[in-house]
Amino acid sequence: MTGALIEARGLTRRFPGGAGIGGIDLDVAAGEIHALVGLNGAGKTTLMRVLLGMLRPDEGDVRIAGCALAETDWAQVGHLVEAPLAYAELDGRANLLLAARLHAVPKAKAAQQVEAVLTELNLGAYATVRARRMSLGNRQRLGLAATLQHHPHVIVLDEPTNALDPAGVIALREALLRRAAAGAAILVSSHHLDEVARVAHRITVINGGRVIGALDPHGADLERAFFALVHADDTHRSTS
Ligand SMILES: Nc1ncnc2c1ncn2[C@@H]1O[C@H](COP(=O)(O)OP(=O)(O)OP(=O)(O)O)[C@@H](O)[C@H]1O
């Protein structure tokens, strides 16, 4: 193992019919933003769910901050992989206070932390609005705020820019860059190659449930490089 905060070796999880992920190795180091890109159905969400213990792998090993999943300190992890969890009848602030308590943040610190994240993600105007009255994008911001507010060491986000407006995309970008600079290991999936190029230190491409290569975030024409990798892999698989 490498000392990375997220380490996966040989992860395989197959669903009935054969879809899923196979033989995936992945590392995310402290201070690194590592992006996963792939077409719909490539296996990004499945990989994240296995990394977070939401799905059991058929084979392989996951370590978070050097610990097996059963020993992981989940208070040090922030993840948003399925729909953002929000209590519909609670307002933005109450939802965030609850999320802070679920991450074991002491009560005295939680209030201060919640105000900071409301400002960071431009959610101040929604502090007293019930979640059920929020737009999809603001509910996504609330979910991101709940995930990031306790400054976890490990962050896993599945398509976090979905439903965000351009201001939300920028606010999230800055929040992630700040946390990486402070030493967090961040794994993020996205379909937006331009956005990924702005934030990621490393980009891993997944296709058909396997890692098929990497893209240089500073490289020219990321889209072309992405499709070249996917096309080559599809061609290889259809002829082998
Ligand atoms: N619970 C499940 N049962 C059966 N098949 C599943 C299940 N979950 C995912 N799959 C299949 O596994 C494959 C990978 O799906 P996954 O959701 O991980 O892809 P993805 O890369 O996250 O896609 P998207 O970009 O559309 O979110 C797909 O073929 C999907 O249909």
UniProtKB/TrEMBL annotation:
UniProtKB keywords: ATP-binding, Nucleotide-binding, Transport
InterPro entries per UniProt: AAA+_ATPase, ABC_transporter-like_ATP-bd, ABC_transporter-like_CS, P-loop_NTPase
Top-level division of the source organism's lineage: Bacteria
Annotated coiled-coil segments of the chain: none
Gene3D superfamilies tied to this protein: P-loop containing nucleotide triphosphate hydrolases
Pfam family for this entry, one: ABC_tran
Domain ABC transporter: 6-233
A molecular-function term among this protein's GO annotations: ATP hydrolysis activity
SMART domains: AAA (SM00382)
Protein name: ABC transporter domain-containing protein
Species of the source: Catellatospora coxensis
